[in-house]
Hints:
By secondary structure, the chain is of the alpha/beta class. Helices cover 43% and strands 16% of the residues.
Amino acid sequence: MFTRLIYLLLFMAPQVLIYLYLRERLPDPTRPRRGHVVRVVLAAVFIVFNLPWLVVGQRVLFGGTMWGVGRIPLTGPWIAWQLLGWIYGALITVHLLGKMLWWLGAKLRGERGAEPSAERGSPDLQRQEPLPAPRSQMSRRRFLARATYAYAGAGAALSTYGIWSAYRLPQVTRRTLVFPDLPPGLDGLTLLHLSDLHAGMHLGEDMMQEIVAQANALRPDLIVQTGDMIDISRSYIPAYVRAFRELSAPFGVVTVLGNHDRYTGEREVIQGCRDAGQVFVQNGCHVVERHGAVLALLGIDDPHNWTADDPQQADVDAALRAAPPNAFHVLLAHRPGAWDTAAPRGIPLTLAGHIHGGQFYLPLIGWSPGSLITKYVMGHFQRGNSQLYVSRGIGVVGVPIRVFAPPEIELFELRRG
């Protein structure tokens, strides 16, 4: 419990420090009544945006589960607020370090050590010269006020965008994948990849029906799902079945298991997918024939562990043994780490999901919190003749927010070349 308390305090520290800093610096000491109002408003804003810490702290300290955090009011804005708190704290730190370096540089140059002249020491002249300190303080206060307004405005804008992005229809990513060994009969095959639907409290039956209509409108030859169809509760399976039994393609819908499906109930989720008319593959192979060519869809289960980038060698090998000879292989895996086994074994294409692109992405530096879990966060990867595509997925986990990592479905066209 002590270790959990330390981690909790570390995560809360930026909000507390920023509040104390602004409470001291923001109000104008020459206008005490207005300063009191500023302090009250500042306290109210920080209290409202940090209310979820009451539930999160209780669960962290006393061993409760974090899966239901998404049900807490203001969770989306809260996450955005915490992230902005770290950014704001970092900017203040950089500002203070810059001032310290400037001061040290000035001192080394002797500028701060210069003696005032006799004339400047005259009391009459000193009375005539303006005092810089109050003006400097007021300038700093105005700067802090503007920075605080910008901070609050950015938090509101980021939260609004992130929540809207989490609930929007997925973007369609269209990509042509070229393979030198693709059989001529599979040339031009279109394959639609769905991943991480997370049917549940943040994605209901109406939204599922819209996603199915969107997928069907693309008219793919084949549809595959790489896990996490259901989010934790079995009560969402009937709605999933009703919506996804309308999903169709000439060569069918082929599905594999995700970790949230396992948490929900492996047997129940598999039965629900089959009730929706899908082919469910577990460490095996489903064969599709087109114009005399054979496509082997290798499907593997989500591993029973929390190992980052688990290569799942035994699962991939079991699926390969089930495949017919001379077939073109496509590996369907929930976690992208399986590509580390697929690429050396000559599997041309691996499709995966799992990370949702981290649900937060910083475009300027190309960083996502998903990179703390896997080196394959999202997008296309290639190693020799083997390719991997990691989907950002459709739904969300826990927190209904997606910042610069919008939901997606991918329509691939396989080409020989």
